[in-house]
Structures
1.
Amino acid sequence: QVQLQESGPGLVKPSQALSLTCTVSGASITTDYDYWSWIRQPPGKGLEWIGYISWTGRPYYSPSLKSRTSMSRDTSKNQLTLQVSSTTPEDTAVYYCTRTRDYVQDFWGQGTQVTVSS
């Protein structure tokens, strides 16, 4: 069974960077043609796609967040990392990591709440 688990600090001060980790079990993040995405949902709003990192380790970011976002991975730990810099309260959201295979986001983590507040 594929499982994704997000983790990270629940509270971040404005202007600081937030860093989240997604630990994957039951699947390898290097499996051909799998994409690993980060998605967030601000309170009272819809889902927002942040970007993905491919099975080759190549990242692709949403244009709206590209200047502040960085994604990486640790294949030895089967983990993905998301960093968002220069945060504001508008970055407050539940953050999810997901797997996309054959154009379907078939597995999601449970999500982790991040609040940006002083």
Note: The mean pLDDT is 97.
2.
Amino acid sequence: QVQLVESGGGLVQAGGSLRLSCAASGRTFSGYLMAWFRQAPGKERAFVAAISGSGGSTDYADSVKGRFTISRDNAKNTVYLQMNSLKPEDTAVYYCATKIPPAAAFNTWGQGTQVTVSS
């Protein structure tokens, strides 16, 4: 069993930055793909970014490319999302997630952290 706990959300003005953290506990962390998703009010949960187990491969939603950076520290069992040049449309609850084998889909989620970007 893996537990994920997000932190780092808050209120920021447009153009500002935040760094989200997701701490994992319970099992070996380094082998797992990790991802960030977000859900804005009235919208479905959407993919934001993902990082491979080694950290050598990353993927981003088009809407955040060039502004967000996903990274991980396997020694600390933590994945990060550095968010720069924030826009009001980035306002959402941000969740980290992972796939625990043999699942093909993301099956373990954190509780979420609120990010609010004011204009």
Note: The chain has a mean pLDDT of 94.
3.
Amino acid sequence: QVQLVESGGGLVQAGGSLRLACAFSGGTFTLGWFRQAPGKEREFVASISPNGGAKQYADSVKGRFAISRDNAKNTMYLQMNILKPEDTAVYYCADRRGAVSAFSRDYNHWGQGTQVTVSS
């Protein structure tokens, strides 16, 4: 049974950094980060293949965020730098069988989310 648990969220000033973690169990699959701000739809952030060789990013985070994973620790990470107030959202990790994807409908299981708040 796949389980996903996010951690690492918090309050940070604009321009700062945070690193999110997603602990996963039940297999080694493609993983993704999504986020949802109040009153907005869930949006894609980044995705990584099972061996970490393929990565995909949303245009809004390219050059600022970096996705990675350590399968020995069953953990995926999202290093977020140069944070902006518009990055404020609940961040979710999810898994899928197949290649990296930006579409939430392609993902099977979701974590409970972790709140990231960026103050201006």
Note: The chain has a mean pLDDT of 97.
